Amino acid sequence: MSATPQPSVVFFHAHPDDEAIFSGGTIARLAAAGHRVVVVMATSGGLGLEAADASDALDKVREQELALACRILGVADTVLLRYVDSGLDDAAYPLGSFATADVGEAAARLAAVLRAEAAEALVVYDEGGVYGHSDHVQVHRVGTAAAALAGIATVYEMTVDREYLHFVETHLIDHAREALPHIEHIGMPTVFITLMLDVRAYLTQKRAAIAAHASQVHDTSSVMQLSLESFRNVYGFEWYVRNGPPSVLDTLIDDW
């Protein structure tokens, strides 16, 4: 008889580097507290910024960067679904893109992972995909459907507090927003956010995990040029909307 797997918290992301930017501190906190964390990646990010010195296809480079970032954060397992990165042009998705994948089929794949990993909670993006990227919006759709299939009672939606970000230096999401000018808003208003998690004690890991994605986040990029204090202000909190009863992420606010 096979052993019952340890319960896990599953984070479902669109592209390598999203796990570090939007949830790196939360993942590190969970791992440090003894929770088993699994990251499921929808695409390998093949349409991201091209690495100047990449000898392999960009998706392979980004998978390697993801593996490094996940080791830094304490992730127990990483699952790659390997849908094609949909890119930024909503009028010309590539063949096999995640944005055009059948939601039911993709949800069934994710639900199988949730069952195999004994997921006690699933973490996806908010309904708008945080900043409107089609792959991020699809993560929300597929993740929500997969949770229903797998009987996961609690789904947390990653977001950013758009009002908080008005008062700090530039977040990486602002650059992403520039690439999608048709998006009116990013994240959520403060009033709709359920959890604001303090991850300031885990910023060394979060910053190193972001830096691990060197093909996308260069040493000269705005995030890497921030002073430690500015980085702490911009990236020291992570935000979630909870759907369902309180679950594992809620335990991280006990010492707030």
What does this structure look like?
α2 runs antiparallel to α6 (203-211). The chain has a seven-stranded mixed beta sheet, with helices on both faces. It has one domain (8-243): 3-Layer(aba) Sandwich (Rossmann fold), CATH 3.40.50.10320. Helix content is 36%, strand content 17%. β1, α1 and β2 form a beta-alpha-beta unit. The chain has 256 residues and is α/β, with parallel strands linked by helices. It has helices spanning 18-32, 58-73, 103-116, 134-150, 172-179, 203-211, 222-225, 228-235; strands at residues 8-13, 36-43, 77-83, 119-125, 155-159, 195-198, 237-243. It has eight helices and seven strands.
Q: Compute the number of strand runs.
A: 7
Form type: globular
Query: Which residues form runs of ≥5 with pLDDT under 50?
Result: none
Tell me the distance between the termini: 42 Å
Strand content: 15-25%
> Looking at CATH, which topology would you report?
Rossmann fold
Structural class: alpha/beta
- CATH class, please? Alpha Beta
Q: Give the C-alpha Rg.
A: 17 Å
Strand line-up across the major sheet: 3-2-1-4-5-7-6
Tally of domains: 1
CATH superfamily: LmbE-like
CATH architecture: 3-Layer(aba) Sandwich
Overall pLDDT metric: 91
Tally of contiguous helical segments: 8
Main sheet overview = 7 strands, mixed
The helical percent reads 25-40%
Strand and helix order: EHEHEHEHEHEHHHE
